UniProtKB/TrEMBL annotation:
InterPro entries assigned: TPM_dom
Name of a matching Pfam family: TPM_phosphatase
Descriptive protein name: TPM domain-containing protein
Coiled coil start-end: none
Keyword Transmembrane helix belongs to the record: yes
PANTHER family cross-referenced by the UniProt entry: BLL7265 PROTEIN (PTHR30373:SF8), UPF0603 PROTEIN YGCG (PTHR30373)
Record-annotated membrane-spanning stretches: 45-64, 84-106
Domain (TPM): residue spans on this chain: 139-205
Keywords: Membrane, Transmembrane, Transmembrane helix
Presence of the UniProt keyword Transmembrane in the record: yes
Amino acid sequence: MKPAPTYLTEADHAQISAAVAKAELQSAGEIVTILADRSDGYTDVALTWCAGVALLALAALSLFPEFYMGLYDWALADWGHEWTPRAIVGLAAGFATLKFAGAYLLQLWTPLKFAVIPGPVKTARVHERAVRAFRIGAEQRTMGRTGVLIYLSMREHRAEILADQAIATKVDPEVWGDAMQAMLGHVREGRVADGMCAAVLKVGAIVAPHFPRADDDINELPDRLIEV
């Protein structure tokens, strides 16, 4: 298995950590940032495409049997071949297997694999992974339940912002749209670190009016970016 690409340098990590620290000076919110190469392996989707290609191949064979049987005879120069039911079934099985294997091999090229994954599937898998990460890294991890997760998944071109219970009761999910736009605008241009920093500062500004920082506030969650 190939290692995940490296999207950020050490300087980028330091920049994001500094942005988190700055944002948390404004409020009692605790911001966790996660950058993922991908949110799922999508093996089931790849196999579904393979099965679909194999079924289409069988459908084509059933519609144009003479063409494919003639192609088989031509390829093997088997002029005297007799097409028994067993031979026809063997041809169909071999043809479907080749198409299945070919579709699988094509999807080993990651850009193609992700290009043929339906958008709603990507959105659902990214959300599921973000929720799992939120439950592990931010939810109910602070005294005031003021954790916020900013999750960016590069291969799917999708992001999520999730807030713990106290913040979620004060801030409507739609409000995070400004932070999301600020982040994705930079990410689309290849400036991942700038995008994460923009989102972090926007989140801090959104949370601050509802949860101002107290004098005795302590840093309960790490400021560093997590790459997975």
